[in-house]
Design brief:
The complex is a heterotrimer of chains A (683), B (443) and C (252).
Chain A lengths: L3 H21 L4 H25 L3 E9 L2 E7 L1 H24 L6 H18 L3 H20 L5 H33 L17 H16 L6 H10 L3 H25 L5 H23 L6 H26 L3 H36 L12 H18 L6 H14 L7 H34 L15 H22 L1 H11 L1 H4 L4 H4 E4 L2 E8 L6 E2 L1 H21 L27 H11 L1 H4 L2 E7 L2 E7 L13 H24 L4 H23 L1
Antiparallel strand pairs in A: 1-2, 3-4, 4-5, 6-7
Chain B lengths: L5 E3 L4 E2 L3 E9 L2 E8 L4 E6 L3 E2 L3 H9 L6 E2 L5 E4 L3 E5 L11 E6 L4 E8 L6 H4 L5 H9 L6 H16 L5 H29 L3 H22 L8 E2 L2 E2 L5 H25 L3 H7 L7 H7 L4 H4 L7 H4 L20 H24 L21 E8 L2 E9 L5 E7 L1 H13 L7 H8 L3 H5 L1
Parallel strand pairs in B: 1-5, 2-6
Antiparallel strand pairs in B: 3-4, 4-5, 7-11, 9-10, 10-11, 12-13, 14-15, 15-16
Chain C lengths: L4 H8 L31 H7 L5 E2 L7 E2 L20 H4 L4 E2 L6 H4 L7 E7 L5 H7 L13 E3 L8 E5 L7 H10 L5 E5 L1 H4 L14 H4 L4 E3 L6 H12 L16
Parallel strand pairs in C: 4-5, 4-6, 6-7, 7-8
Antiparallel strand pairs in C: 1-2, 3-8
Classes of the chains: A mainly alpha (683), B alpha+beta (443), C alpha/beta (252).
């Protein structure tokens, strides 16, 4: 039990720490990030204490309208998200203390400003504060991306695109909030207090919220907002981690919040969310598996994971529509759990990739670099767990949440209508396919990005064991522990998620799903429906360890092991000395590029000129240096951008040319219109 | 000494329908053996002034010393993002012999193929120098075990030519029968490997069973499963009796008939056909300019078969139908081999029915005063194509020079050319359909 | 035609050899695979002169031997009074190495299941084909628990064919290195055991036994599949056969 006052004091502490960090950024990056670590730590303590025993509370700031005021609210729902975010920020700031030494000091301020804005979003109790936080987050990230390395043109385009998508998302969120305002009559509907029914405007609110938050989350068809800025701006990896892991988490938070206020769901909302989620999952996985960029690949994986979360939300809505409360409850928990597992694992992956890319000085997965084992050992160790979690391998976090989402989809047969059953089942098949394909991508990013680059013979790094390396290694190990903990300690996370979801489901569902079974003590088995399926991540971990430990012990009984190290087998030939003789990352994915050439629009051009054969495996907008695969949606957005620019130039030339006479005409037309309107409404 | 179906002619340019078959040195001269595919003539000439560029590789492979592998690389470079060389080295199960390939690729698609040969170069040509032809036969017939009959027949015919010795007709007909049996079992081997690559387990098992029965026939009638010890100078060792010949003929007829029925059934598998059709196309122009020989050339429409165009006895009296196909792909080469099995059965029935009975070996070597300094040569159609032996004997009748131009050696480049643009999974089919053998090409 | 495969199969009968339960038939080991045996009338000196590969060694009574590892079955020694007994007398010519190489201990797990990798180090292809013939229906080696693998890392036994060529020495050593223990090596054919007819050629380096430790040798040129199979089964410990001392080959 923790008093309201203490909660707000801690919140103030968080905000203060970040604010101080922002101010000290230009002077000392280390101080800034250290303050960031402090702030995140207080955030973790705060959110845990609220989840475990606190109460929802709000604090008014100032008056907005006679009926509503700007508020700060701490509830169990937003504490859950604050917990996830603070855990990620803690690790990221720890990593950053020594990471971006060669970037300007302003970057640390911008990073902490982004974090601060996200805290504001999470604790906002009303729409205006939320939007303030949202805008501030977008703009701070925009400047952060502008700091990136890379060609001037590429960086500017990436940043501008990010800003455009960000502002579009703000507009749509404003529309959604306007709809809510018109139903409720006040702005402070984001707090924990219940609000009235929303009425017929619900569909508009839902679609606007889905589009607005979907733009930020980077789901199809808006996924360019996700991969382009990250892949092409070459901003430092702590910034990328922040953008991909926590920025998208804000989208999840907002969407779940809005959905929870729409009391009655319509059928097609669920279908829409399911389809968008399924398509994003598949597209994200496919594009990730053919990406050659060490940051682009995880960005695509984020698209896939956010798609999974959205389809869980869609399943929740469908289940609620049909009155399947158990399934609906489970779907919400699955979405919340996946947010946790994805954020931690994705941040970890970006940081690992960032460290390896820095050591190799290249983002290209085909570049073998030559990193010494000493410097990369943390990346190798933590990378294994991170990648396995994202590939949904037991007993890690990603496995638990992926299982839960698939279980939700497996139960699509429970829906009342044939259409819903079909949609649910098809999306389930597509999701399972995506889950399989993402394994290719994860193998690629870990195998080629990390393991391939380790050069056993390299001696560098033996003397570089300064404290800088320690910070980075520490943060990577911290994330690995987190990924394992969230998986093995699934019942605990389940408890936190069910506490957080009380706001949505209006009851605690922990006891419905977490029991004991078949000899496993109560509190360790998670069921997905009764009867349907169940598993126990904790005991799976125990079992796996036993499965490993018992043969090891038995083999030791026969005496110490005789180990012999042999070389790799190259069909009898000697070990290749240059990377030109090794299967590279590009070749690894080319079978997929060729088999799915209808999707990637792959064209293989092999041109023989005299004694030189030139090969280019093209997609029409291939970037040879950074080599991203064509995203067919990009053509649509390029077209949209072209039309927008054309329209804006037409407007600036024809409609607003600066001629006073034309402006006077506009003023008179507007005047007439207003008069007519007043006459109409009054009369 | 030069048989009547060989023309001495000065040729200035070897390209197009005039293929350079081999170059050999004798005495102080360097001579070239050329093939006129249009008029079906063998030409003997000085080395032409203008040769195709790929000839350099042919010579490199021919004259290399044993001890280190050689890359048959035309020298062209491949540039592009993500391009690497995939080494399909000497110890793999896809290639059962010691030999490798370097596939230049960007993943899955083969851009260029560089065969690595010379792993098995034993140096037979140099090892036989100074030995009597009968002793040299031991090495020659073991240069390529599955082409043993063709090798030893070719060699011993050239030697007998140099000695002025006439082996009795029965011996020559027996040799031809052995060569045809060898052709049958080699073509069955190729088909078995193709169906194994396509996972057609029934086809593989049935084909291999039939091949095993042919090998047992070899052992029963000719004394060795692979026809080792078939030839000696002046004759052959196995003396086929009338009953033996009849039994052999019956067995071969039943084997080839059974195979023909089975093949019709095996080739109804869409999956199998899909793997064979359209794979590794070798255009007729490429086949001609690169000098391809054997079933792979005939599968691209080149009409050359030594049995018809260089007919040593008994092929002068027996008609052999040249099987060609215009398809140019793996399917075409496979169909050529399948039809050749049936043709060989027909030829065998003629050979075995009408074999003369004038003894298996010459009673005494009648050495008319031969001009020993000159050379003699012979070409036979081995199962993989045209095989050339050029032999020179010294005054004591020992071998002073041997030059072998195997069929597989000239087929490497056509294979490499035809594989470009195909995917990795097509490799096995292309390789097997050419019937390339490293033992044959390396000697 | 084969509308009903089962009937066709029934009509054709069982092709598979009964070996090792039954003795090998004359078709499976033709008479021509019988190696030379000395009789009282054999002229050892003449035999040594006639033999092209040095398989017949003259000497004092106890030292004379026919080295089956060198014999290529060319039958030239007929002229020196050597005879060729039928296969049923001696069974096969596969031989077993002495215990000092530790084969007994190493082969203990492989009685019923053996994974072999075949490597060609410079053969004429005949031994190659004979070993590969073991998978055809007449011999069907998988019924005995023997399987071909593609990679040395999965292999228990290395089957080497061919006269070791200078270009393949490294590859052979690397292959042997890559195999995890316990493992053993089987040389098949005269070329692998001693060089066969290629002993004096340029490309030949040494018998395979000089490059990797060989445990079992299977003489022949080429050995028939049944002889290869007998060698494999002897290596696995499923056949116990010790040939007479006179016919023991040179050190494998």
């Amino acid at each position: 039990m923790i008093s309201e006052g203490l909660q707000f004091v801690m919140l103030a502490g968080v905000l203060l720490a970040y604010a101080l960090g922002i101010l000290s950024g230009p002077f000392s990056k280390r101080a800034a990030y250290s303050l960031g670590v402090v702030g995140s730590f207080i955030g973790v303590v705060l959110s845990l204490s609220v989840l475990l025993g606190g109460e929802a509370a709000t604090f008014s700031l100032w008056q907005l309208t006679p009926a509503s005021s700007a508020e700060v609210a701490i509830s169990q729902f937003n504490s859950y998200f604050l917990l996830i975010s603070s855990l990620v920020w803690l690790g990221t700031c720890l990593y950053s203390v020594r990471y971006d030494d060669d970037y300007p000091g302003g970057l640390s301020s911008l990073l902490l400003l982004t974090i601060l804005s996200m805290v504001v979003i999470l604790v906002s109790g009303d729409a205006v504060t939320f939007l303030i936080g949202w805008e501030s987050m977008t703009i701070a990230s925009f400047f952060m991306i502008l700091e990136g390395r890379g060609s001037r043109e590429g960086v500017r385009n990436a940043a501008f695109l990010f800003l455009a998508f960000g502002e579009a998302s703000t507009v749509f969120i404003m529309l959604a909030f306007a709809g809510l305002f018109s139903s409720v009559g006040s702005f402070d509907f984001l707090g924990p207090s219940p609000i009235g029914a929303v009425g017929s405007i619900g569909s508009w609110v839902f679609v606007a919220a889905l589009v607005g938050f979907g733009l930020k989350m980077g789901v199809a068809p808006f996924h360019m907002s996700e991969w382009l800025p990250i892949a092409h701006s070459s901003a430092p990896s702590n910034a990328s981690a922040l953008l991909s892991a926590t920025l998208t988490l804000m989208g999840v938070f907002g969407l779940l919040d809005v959905v929870s206020y729409l009391a009655v769901y319509q059928l097609w909302w669920g279908w829409l969310a399911l389809i968008i989620g399924g398509v994003s999952a598949l597209l994200g996985a496919l594009f990730a598996s053919v990406s050659e960029h060490s940051k682009g690949l995880p960005a695509y994986s984020t698209i896939e994971n956010n798609g999974l979360i959205i389809l869980a939300v869609g399943a929740y809505m469908l289940a609620s529509y049909y009155g399947l409360t158990l399934l609906a409850d489970f779907a919400v928990i699955a979405a919340l759990y996946h947010a946790f597992s994805h954020s931690t694992a994705k941040a970890s992956l970006f940081l690992i990739n960032g460290w390896m890319s820095k050591l190799k000085s290249s983002f290209d997965l085909n570049n073998p670099g030559k990193v010494s084992p000493m410097r990369s050992r943390a990346a190798v160790f933590a990378g294994a767990f991170t990648v396995l979690s994202l590939a949904a391998a037991p007993p890690l976090a990603g496995w638990v949440s992926e299982w839960m989402i698939l279980e939700v989809l497996f139960q699509s047969f429970r829906y009342g209508d044939l259409t819903s059953q079909i949609v649910g089942t098809l999306v389930g098949a597509v999701t399972a396919l995506a889950a399989g394909i993402i394994i290719v991508a994860m193998t690629k990013v870990y195998g080629f990005g990390v393991l391939w680059s380790v050069d056993r013979k390299s001696q560098a790094g033996a003397k570089d064991e300064d404290r800088g390396g320690r910070f980075i290694e520490g943060s990577l190990l911290y994330f690995a522990a987190l990924v394992i903990g969230v998986g093995v300690g699934a019942p605990a996370i389940f408890f936190l998620a069910s506490t957080a979801s009380v706001q949505i489901l209006h009851e605690s569902v922990y006891s419905l799903f977490v029991t004991g079974l078949l000899g496993i003590p109560a509190g360790f088995v998670i069921l997905s429906g009764s009867p349907f399926g169940g598993f126990s991540p904790t005991f799976t971990a125990v079992f796996m360890l036993a499965l490993l430990a018992v043969p090891l012990a038995i083999s030791r009984l026969g005496g110490p092991w005789r180990l012999r190290r042999a070389q790799g087998w190259f069909a009898g030939m000697a070990q290749p000395t240059s990377s030109a003789d090794l299967y590279d990352s590009f070749g690894f994915s080319t079978p997929i590029r060729i088999m799915l050439r209808f999707l990637f629009r792959t064209k293989e051009n092999v041109v023989k000129v005299g004694m030189v054969t030139r090969t280019v495996i093209l997609s029409p907008e291939e970037y040879v240096v950074e080599l991203e695969v064509l995203d067919v949606f990009k053509r649509f957005y390029d077209l949209l951008a072209k039309w927008t620019l054309a329209l804006s130039s037409w407007v600036s030339r024809k409609a607003m040319p600066g001629k006073l006479s034309l402006y006077i005409v506009y003023i008179m037309v507007a005047f007439v219109f207003v008069l007519l309107y007043i006459l109409y409404t009054v009369g | 000494m030069i048989p009547k179906f060989v023309e001495m002619r000065r040729v200035d340019e070897a390209s197009g329908p005039i293929q350079l078959s081999t170059i050999f040195r004798v005495g102080g001269d360097t001579l070239a053996l050329l093939t006129d595919t249009q008029n079906n003539r063998t030409l003997l000439s000085e080395v032409p002034q203008r040769l195709g560029e790929e000839i350099g590789l042919l010579l490199k492979g021919e004259e290399a010393s044993p001890g280190a592998p050689i890359d048959l690389d035309t020298g062209s470079k491949v540039e592009g993002f993500g391009v690497f060389t995939f080494g399909y080295g000497p110890v793999t199960s896809g290639v059962p012999e010691a030999g490798g390939f370097k596939l230049v690729t960007y993943g899955e698609r083969v851009v260029k193929v560089i065969p690595q040969v010379n792993f098995k170069k034993r140096g037979v040509e140099r090892a036989v120098v100074g030995s009597k032809p009968d002793d040299a036969l031991l090495l020659v017939e073991r240069s390529a075990g599955n082409f043993s009959a063709s090798y030893s027949t070719c060699f011993v015919t050239a030697v007998e030519d140099a000695l002025g010795l006439e082996a009795p007709s029965q011996a020559r007909w027996t040799r031809a029968a052995a060569v045809e049996l060898e052709r049958i079992y080699n073509h069955l081997y190729v088909f078995g490997r193709l169906s194994e690559a396509a996972s057609q387990n029934v086809a593989t098992a049935q084909t291999n069973a039939l091949r095993e029965s042919v090998l047992r026939l070899n052992a029963k009638h000719f004394g060795h499963r692979y026809l080792f010890g078939l030839n000696r100078v002046g004759g052959v060792r196995p003396d086929l009796s009338k009953d033996g010949r009849k039994a052999l003929l019956e067995s071969i007829r039943s084997i080839t008939r059974e195979f023909a029925e089975l093949v019709d059934y095996f080739l109804t598998s869409r999956i199998f056909l899909d793997r064979l059709q359209g794979t590794a196309k070798l255009a007729k122009n490429d086949a001609l300019s690169l000098g391809a020989v054997g079933p792979c050339a005939r599968g691209s429409g080149v009409e050359w078969d030594d049995r018809l165009t260089y007919p040593i006895e008994p092929y002068q009296d027996i008609f052999v139908n040249i099987e060609t196909d215009r398809g140019e792909d793996t399917m075409a080469r496979t169909m050529v081999r399948l039809r050749e099995i049936q043709t060989s059965a027909v030829v065998l029935s003629e050979l075995l029915d009408k074999m003369p009975s004038d003894g298996a070996a010459a009673r005494q070597s009648s050495e008319s005063g031969k001009d020993r300094g000159k050379f003699s040569f012979c070409r036979t159609e081995s199962p993989s194509g045209d095989l050339i032996h050029v032999v020179q004997l010294d005054d004591q009748g020992r071998v002073s020079r041997l030059h072998v131009r195997p069929a597989s050696l000239v087929n490497w480049l056509p294979f490499a050319r035809s594989l470009e643009g195909n995917v990795f999974t097509d490799f096995q089919f292309a390789f097997e359909s050419y019937g390339l053998s490293f033992a044959d090409s390396d000697r | 035609m084969p509308k009903v495969w089962i009937l066709r199969g029934v009509k054709k009968g069982i092709l598979t050899s009964g070996f090792p339960k039954a003795k090998p038939t004359a078709e499976e080991i033709p008479q021509t695979s019988a190696p030379p045996t000395a009789t009282d009338r054999s002229d050892w000196a003449e035999g040594e002169r006639l033999c092209p590969t040095g398989a017949i060694k003259d000497g004092r009574a106890t030292e004379r031997a026919v080295d089956l590892g060198r014999c290529v079955y060319c039958r030239r020694c007929t002229g020196a009074g050597f005879e060729f007994a039928g296969p049923e007398v001696r069974g096969t010519a596969a031989l077993q190495a002495s215990v000092k190489s530790g084969l007994e201990a190493r082969r203990r797990g492989f009685r019923r299941s053996l994974h072999i990798l075949m490597i060609d180090v410079g053969s004429c292809n005949a031994c190659n084909l004979e070993v590969l013939n073991l998978s055809n229906p007449y011999y069907d080696l998988t019924r005995l628990g023997i399987f071909f693998t593609n990679s040395p890392k999965h292999a228990d036994a290395l089957v080497v064919v061919g006269a070791l060529n200078a270009a393949m020495v490294d590859a052979l050593k690397r292959t042997y290195e890559s195999m995890p223990g316990p493992k053993f090596v089987i040389s098949v054919g005269a070329c692998a055991i001693s060089g066969g007819v290629f002993q004096k050629t340029e490309g030949f380096v040494s018998p395979v036994g000089d490059a990797v430790p060989v445990d079992v040798v299977i003489p022949g040129c080429p050995p028939t599949p049944i002889q290869v199979l007998e060698g494999l089964l002897l290596a696995m410990g499923r056949l116990e056969k010790r040939p007479a001392a006179r016919e023991v080959a040179s050190q494998p």
